[in-house]
Amino acid sequence: AVGPANLSRIATKNNITLVHVSSDYVFDGTISPHLEDEPFSPISAYGASKTAGDIAVATTDRHYIFRTSWVIGEGKNFVRTMLSLGQKGISPTVVSDQIGRLTFTSELAAIIKHTVDTSAPFGTYNASNTGNPASWAEITREIFQIAGYGLIVTDTTTDEYFASKANIAPRPLNSVLDTAKLESTGYKPRDWKEDLISYIHKELA
User: Fold this and answer.
1) What digits encode the pLDDT tens for the residues 117-147?
2) Out of 46, 125, 161, 199, which one is annotated catalytic?
3) Which residues on neighbouring strands pair with residue 66, listed in sequence order?
4) Mean pLDDT of 186-195
5) What gap in Å lies between CA 8 and CA 17, rounded to an integer?
6) Cis status, amide bond into 39, omega within 30 of 0
7) What is the 3-state secondary structure of the chain?
C-alpha cells in the first residue's frame, strides 16, 4: 500500500492522472458478480494490502483503478502450467469451486488504453474479458480440448486441494467481475475463450 500512497501524493501535487491495477482479492467472493462500488471485504493479507492501495489511490482526483482477476500473460501462469501437464500426459486434479473469467494481459492493456485515451470519467472500473464464467477445472478442460490433449480432469474443492499444503492464503471463491460500467464507455471486452484459443495456438506454435 505504501507505493500507491506515494504515487497518489505525487499525482495530487502535480495534477497527474494515476492509473492503478487492482484485484478481486479486495473482496471475499460472496457476491456475484462484483460491482465497482461493492464494499471492501478482503480475507487475506494480500487482499488487505491491495485494499489499502485502492483507498490511497482514490484520494487523488485524477485516478483510474482497474480491478482485474485471473490474469494470463507472459511468464508463469495457469494456462502454461496446464499445457505443460498436457504435454507430459498428466491428467490433473483441479479446483472446481472457484469461479471467474480469465483476463489476458493484451485485453487488460487495451481496456486501460481505451479508458485513458477517451477520457472516460475518473474512478474504478472492472477490467476483464467477458464470456461465461467458469471454474479452473472447466477452464482446464477447455485448454486440453483446444490443444488436442485427450486427458481427464478431476474436480476437487479448494479446501480439499489445499488441505495438505501449509501457509496457503484464503482465496475468494467468486471472482466474476461485472463489466457494465466499462462497456458504458464504448468498450466491449473480448470473450475469454476467444483469447484463450489465440493464446494456446501461439504457445503451441
Assistant:
1) 999 999 999 999 999 999 999 999 999 999 9
2) 46
3) 21, 125
4) 98
5) 9
6) no
7) CHHHHHHHHHHHHHCCCEEEEEEHHHCCCCCCCECCCCCCCCCCHHHHHHHHHHHHHCCCCCEEEEEECCEECCCCCHHHHHHHHHHCCCCCEEECCCEECCEEHHHHHHHHHHHHHCCCCCEEEECCCECCCEEHHHHHHHHHHHHCCCCCCEEECHHHHHCCCCCCCCCCCECCECCHHHHCCCCCCCEHHHHHHHHHHHHHC
Here the cell at position 117 is 485515451
Contact 170, 43 (CB under 8 A): yes
Rounded Cα–Cα distance for residues 187 and 64 (Å): 15
Under the banding of pLDDT at 50, 70 and 90, the label for residue 33 is: very high
Grid cell locating 162: 489445499
The answer to whether residue 187 is catalytic is: no
Task: Enter the pTM of the model.
Answer: 0.94
Phi, psi of 177 (to 5 degrees): -110, 130
Distance CA 48, CA 125 (A): 19
> Which residues 6+ apart lie within 8 Å of 152 measured at CB?
91
The gap from C-alpha 177 to its chain's centroid, in whole angstroms, comes to 9
Angle at 30 between CA 28 and CA 35, to 5 degrees: 85
